[in-house]
From TrEMBL:
It catalyses: RX + glutathione = an S-substituted glutathione + a halide anion + H(+). It is found in: Cytoplasm, Cytosol. It comes from Canna indica (Indian-shot). Its main location: cytoplasm. This is Glutathione S-transferase. GO terms for cellular component: cytosol. Is involved in the conjugation of reduced glutathione to a wide number of exogenous and endogenous hydrophobic electrophiles. InterPro entries: Glutathione-S-Trfase_C_sf, Glutathione_S-Trfase, Glutathione_S-Trfase_N, GST_C_Tau, Omega/Tau-like, Thioredoxin-like_sf. Belongs to the GST superfamily. Signal peptide: none annotated. Its EC number is 2.5.1.18. It comes from the Eukaryota.
Length: 228
C-alpha cells in the first residue's frame, strides 16, 4: 500500500492565509488525503492551542497524532514523509536541495516581513518598503537564474517544487496587496522566471481545484459564524 494511504492527516488552517495555502497545495500536489479544520484566529480551538503551544499559529499539521508546526518545516516534512513525485526538493542533488531551501528561507526572512511593513505603513515608508520588496525579488530572480533554473516553466523544471509552492501560494495575495495598498510589487519584465513559475503554478489543475475548495471552506466558515 502506498505510504500516503497509511497516514491520518489533519490540517488546522485559515483560508485567507498564504502560509496555509502552501500546505494545502503541497498536500494536494502529492495526492495526500487530509481532514481540514478552519480556525477562527480570534478564538483558536483548544486542539490548536494544545498541539501548537509554542507558536499557536496556523498552518498546523497533525500526522498520525504527531503535531508539526511552521509552514516551511511542514512543506519539507511532507516531501520527506511521502516520497512520491512531484518532489519539492530533488531527491539526489544535495546542492540543489540546499539552494532551494536557501531561497525558500529568503522569502520568509526578507519578503514576508516587507508585506507586513507595506500594510502597516503610510506614504514614504510604504513606498520604500514596496521598493525594497521588489529589489529583493530581483535578487531572488538572479539567484534562481544562476543557481537553479533550466528549462522552466517551474524552478525545478517541468514539475512544481518547493519554491514554486511557496511563491505560487503567495501570488494572488501579492496582487491583492498591490491593489489594496496602491503599490507595485511584481513586474514580469523584472522577474520573468519567478513570474513564469507563479503563473504556471496557478494554472495546474490540482491547484485550481484546491482554490475552489478553499473558497468554499471560507464561505462555510463565514456562514457558521454569522449563525453563531
Ligand atoms: N512562521 C509561521 C507564520 C504563520 C502565521 O503567521 N500564521 C498566522 C495566519 S497567516 C496566524 O496563525 N496568526 C494567528 C496569530 O498570530 O495569533 C509559518 O510559516 O507557519
Amino acid at each position: 500500500m502506498a505510504e500516503h494511504q497509511l497516514k491520518e492527516v489533519k490540517l488546522h488552517g485559515s483560508a485567507t492565509s498564504g502560509f496555509c495555502m502552501m500546505v494545502h497545495y503541497a498536500l494536494k500536489l502529492k495526492g495526500i488525503a487530509y481532514d481540514y479544520s478552519e480556525e477562527d484566529l480570534k478564538n483558536k480551538s483548544e486542539a490548536l492551542l494544545h498541539l501548537n503551544p509554542v507558536h499557536k499559529k496556523v498552518p498546523h499539521l497533525i500526522v498520525d497524532g504527531k503535531p508539526i508546526a511552521e509552514s516551511f518545516v511542514i512543506l519539507q516534512f511532507i516531501d520527506d514523509a511521502w516520497q512520491n513525485p512531484p518532489y519539492l526538493l530533488p531527491q539526489n542533488d544535495p546542492f540543489k536541495r540546499t539552494k532551494l531551501r536557501f531561497w525558500g528561507d529568503f522569502v520568509y526572512q526578507k519578503l514576508v516581513p516587507l508585506t507586513y511593513a507595506i500594510r502597516s505603513s503610510e506614504g514614504y515608508a510604504k513606498k520604500k518598503a514596496a521598493e525594497e520588496f521588489m529589489a529583493h525579488l530581483i535578487t531572488m530572480e538572479n539567484g534562481v537564474r544562476e543557481e537553479l533554473w533550466s528549462e522552466g516553466p517551474f524552478v525545478n523544471g517541468d514539475e512544481p517544487g518547493l519554491l514554486d509552492v511557496i511563491m505560487g501560494s503567495c501570488y494572488r495575495g501579492l496582487r491583492y496587496l498591490e491593489d489594496a495598498q496602491g503599490v507595485k510589487l511584481v513586474e514580469k519584465e523584472k522577474t520573468p522566471l519567478l513570474c513564469s513559475s507563479m503563473d504556471a503554478f496557478l494554472e495546474l489543475d490540482a491547484i485550481k481545484e484546491r482554490t475552489i475548495y478553499l473558497q468554499e471552506c471560507m464561505q462555510a466558515f463565514k456562514e457558521r459564524k454569522s449563525k453563531a
